[in-house]
Amino acid sequence: MRTQVAIIGAGPSGLLLGQLLHKAGIEAVIVERQTPEYVLGRIRAGVLEQVTTDLLDEAGVGQRMHAEGLVHTGFDMLFNGQRHRIDLEGLTGGKKVMVYGQTEVTRDLMDARQAAGLTTIYEASNVQVLDFDTKTPRVTFEKDGQTHTIACDFIAGCDGFHGVCRASVPRNAIQEFEKVYPFGWLGLLSDTPPVHHELIYANSDRGFALCSQRSHTRSRYYLQVPLTDKVEQWSDEAFWAELKRRLDPEAAEQLVTGPSIEKSIAPLRSFVTEPLRFGRMFLAGDAGHIVPPTGAKGLNLAATDVKYLSNALIEFYQDKTEAGIDGYSARCLKRIWRAERFSWWFTSIMHQFPDEGAINAKLQQAELDYLMHSESGLRTIAENYVGLPLDFGQA
Ligand code: RFL
Ligand code: PHB
């Protein structure tokens, strides 16, 4: 088989890249190791920046998002027993975010890909990326007991944190920056109305909690838990009881509980790979970087990487210039580090750090109190949360 761009991974990064390239008349094949149902079963991101919703529109898949997604103009921060609203719209000159689940984004992209008759190979095992330091890279994989080869011009590594692309780069050609946090997030999805019409990020002395949502009838909640906790230890009843303890009395009283549809624990990590280009292979999305979910930046960063990459590939094929692919890494990394910094900082002021002593909690309270009473403090949170413009760092 031959194609122009072999995309590894059919998560949001790979699918969006496939769609943007298709719109530009560039051929791509996606190779994914899981089934479509498995990919859709992973409950992850919920908040899309305007840059991301614009990209989904550009890819021609924004219709259902605009019909069913929830536009949010602010969110609440809870600490010291009190809630404070961050007026995103007022503080950023009119910017908003869209609450629309990653599952739905993925489903919309999968449907569009299928409708356009584009090739996605699911359940591919032993995927290998080869010769990406030459002009004739190859991808090999096994399926139905046979080994297949894809010859291509470029490989796009959209295969997430545990993928094969980054792992195939020689160790002396790559630098990795990493911070692992001493806790995880236990997430619960339920068909219950959200406790509040906007998100609540809570710093409590029992640990962080987040009240999010997927629709007016479906809620997503998270609790900070020790890394040693196992999801089996957490009954639904225990989850709801703990969440109530971390909320203010009004929210605790209004919380509607019900059976979980999904429950899982995710570790928290800050991680960046430099560079993101290795000859004719590029890393995009979680394959190249991870942010702790507190700032809701992971999927949004993935979308902007993909936009930069599709622009670079379009320039290569249409304008016969390599300037875009040469600049890909530096262009992405500038934006990535800004989002890494915000996600790390927001995580550090909202969670309990067991090893840092009582002084840490006191300093957090002082910082939060300062931020809530400072116009520039509030603006700092709001402008980072709604996200940077796509052309950030171009001047
Ligand atoms: P994905 O989604 O991990 O997809 C990678 C795909 O590659 C496949 N794959 C392979 N395929 C072939 N061969 C191999 N060897 C392969 N190895 C892996 C995998 O099966 C998979 O299908 O990466 P992608 O596409 O870069 O997307 C990134 C996002 O998923 C991620 O950044 C976000 O989910 C992060 N995130 C959030 N981001 C936001 O922007 N806003 C949020 O509100 C938000 N909340 C979250 C989050 C992530 C979370 N977890 C669980 C880490 C909340 C949570 C709890
Ligand atoms: C979610 O709804 O899953 C979600 C929302 C905001 C975050 C992280 C996750 O910061």
Automatic annotation (TrEMBL):
Keyword Flavoprotein among UniProt keywords: yes
InterPro entries: FAD-bd, FAD/NAD-bd_sf, HB_mOase, RIFMO-like
Keyword Plastid listed: no
FAD-binding domain residues: 2-343
Entries under Gene3D superfamilies matching the protein: D-Amino Acid Oxidase, subunit A, domain 2 (3.30.9.10), FAD/NAD(P)-binding domain (3.50.50.60)
Keywords for the protein's UniProt record, in alphabetical order: FAD, Flavoprotein, Oxidoreductase
Molecular function GO labels: 4-hydroxybenzoate 3-monooxygenase activity
Name used for this protein in its record: 4-hydroxybenzoate 3-monooxygenase
Gene coding for it: pobA
